[in-house]
Every structure is written in C-alpha cells, then in structure tokens.
C-alpha cells in the first residue's frame, strides 16, 4: 500500500505516475509531464500533467481555501486497424480509472473528485494509426496558507467604545471599556 499523495500539483502528479506504473498496458512507461515527440515504438505510454488549479476562498483575508487541481492523464497506443486501437484505448482508460478510483487511499486523500472527463481520438501518422485517450480529473482539497508573522500586529490591549454616534439618543447601555473601572 502506498502513502497518501502530497497535496500539491507536483506531489499529486508524481503520485499518480507511481500508482499507474505496472498497472496498465503501458507497463512502466508512465511519465511525469512528458509530451515531446513520442516515437510509436514507445507506445503504449501514459503522461500525467497538471493543467492548473483554482482557489475558492472562504472569505477575504482567510488563509484556508478549497483548492481544485486539474490533472490530465493521456494514454497513447498504436496499431494498424481502428477497431484494434479503439479496443486498446477502452482498455487503457479502464485500467487507469481502476488504478485510481479503485484505490480508497488515493480517493480518500481528496475532499472530492469533482469531475472526470474523458476523450478519445485516433490519428494517422506515416502508415501507423495512433490513438489517444485523455482523462481530466478535478481534484478538490483544502489548502492552509502560512501567514507572514511580520504582518501580524502585536496587540497589547483592545478597547471597545459603545457610545452612540448616530442616531442621536440611541439607547446604548454603558459597558466596561477595558482598563477603566466601573463607576459606582
């Protein structure tokens, strides 16, 4: 059993690569962010990339946010017949989703897997047919940002003024202002 992924774009990406190696028809040909001129002899292969993320803050100035990271997993296969490639793409897609969705530790690391989008495409290239399956996951988790201690004011005392400023004559009871004794 693997450890939970580190919840950062790089941590999630490298964790997905580790979880997919040896669990799909791509074998160990699972790469982190590599999309540079694959040779058909390298297929089947999988590349895992992060597409960016968004923060939905809970309020102005808060250091706690819900973060959604978009992760793309692209599997590439080759063949000579479209039906063979289509079957290979379906198989690879199922293997990728089984390896991730079937791993309760991986799924449990996130607050939610909000969306799973898939797309498949077959292209011709120098006599070979190349197929691609793209799976995009929206992974939601909380992020706690670190506050800069130099920006936190050093408060020694707090005072509360309860005098009515407006409207004139508002019924406001006298309350203790920190540091002042009550009058008898």
- Write out the CATH superfamily name: Phage minor tail protein U
Q: CATH topology, which one?
A: Alpha-Beta Plaits
Order of helices and strands: HEEEHHEE
Q: What's the total helix number?
A: 3
Secondary structural class: alpha+beta
Distance between the termini: 70 Å
- Largest beta sheet: what is the strand line-up? 1-2-3-5-4
Largest sheet: 5 strands, mixed
Task: Determine the mean pLDDT.
Answer: 82
**CATH architecture verdict:** 2-Layer Sandwich
- As a percent range, the share of strand residues is 25-35%
Strand tally is 5
Low-confidence stretches: none
How many domains comprise the coordinates? Answer: 1
General shape? elongated
CATH class: Alpha Beta
Query: Which percent range fits the helix content?
Result: 10-25%
Radius of gyration of CA atoms, rounded to a whole number: 28 Å
Which terms summarize this structure?
184 residues; alpha+beta; Alpha-Beta Plaits; five-stranded mixed β-sheet; 3 helices; 5 strands; 20% helix
């Amino acid at each position: 059993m693997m450890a939970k992924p580190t919840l950062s774009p790089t941590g999630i990406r490298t964790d997905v690569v580790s979880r997919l190696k040896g669990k799909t028809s791509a074998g160990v040909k699972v790469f982190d962010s590599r999309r540079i001129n694959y040779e058909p002899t390298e297929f089947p292969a999988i590349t895992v990339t992060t597409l960016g993320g968004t923060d939905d803050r809970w309020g102005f100035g808060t250091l706690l946010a819900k973060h959604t990271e978009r992760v793309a997993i692209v599997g590439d296969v080759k063949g000579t017949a479209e039906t063979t490639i289509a079957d290979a793409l379906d198989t690879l897609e199922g293997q990728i989703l089984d390896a991730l969705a079937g791993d309760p530790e991986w799924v449990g690391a996130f607050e939610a897997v909000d969306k799973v989008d898939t797309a498949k495409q077959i292209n011709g290239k120098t006599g070979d047919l190349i197929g691609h399956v793209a799976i995009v996951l929206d992974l939601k988790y909380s992020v706690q940002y670190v506050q800069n201690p130099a920006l936190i004011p050093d408060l020694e005392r707090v005072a509360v003024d309860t005098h009515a400023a407006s409207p004139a004559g508002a019924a406001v009871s006298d309350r203790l202002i920190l540091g002042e004794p009550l009058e008898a």
